[in-house]
Write a structure and sequence with these properties.
alpha+beta; five-stranded antiparallel beta sheet; 3 helices; 5 strands
């Protein structure tokens, strides 16, 4: 059974800055993204896997990030390592973005 993962593409507001591609942060609730923004999901046409992408504004991404951080603060994984610096860097990247594309894709977990 394939598992789902997410990747983010951050496109900067300034044209002289590079775009960024990163894995979905550990504190983001991936399933919740589909509940909230799923009507925007576009199928990517992969004939084998069911992959989607949807577009978020930086404001939407920052609001989602804030909600997820609050929920994650009670999660045991939040204490496994200090994520404060990682969260600050991610927030800065979102604030400097003009668009955020979330790609949700299937991958073989090897646990079949």
């Amino acid at each position: 059974m394939p598992a789902r993962a997410a990747r983010l593409y951050l496109f900067p507001a300034e044209s002289d800055q590079p775009s960024q591609v990163m894995d979905c942060p550990a504190w983001w609730h991936h399933g919740g993204l589909f509940e909230k923004y799923g009507e925007r999901a576009l199928g990517l046409g992969n004939p084998i896997y069911v992959d989607y992408a949807f577009l978020l504004t930086p404001f939407e991404a920052l609001e989602w990030d804030k909600q997820c951080r609050e929920a994650f603060s009670g999660d045991v994984r939040s204490h496994l390592r200090n994520r404060d610096a990682e969260m600050l860097q991610f927030e800065a990247a979102l604030k400097s973005s003009k668009w955020v594309i979330v790609e949700s894709y299937e991958w073989e977990s090897g646990l079949d």
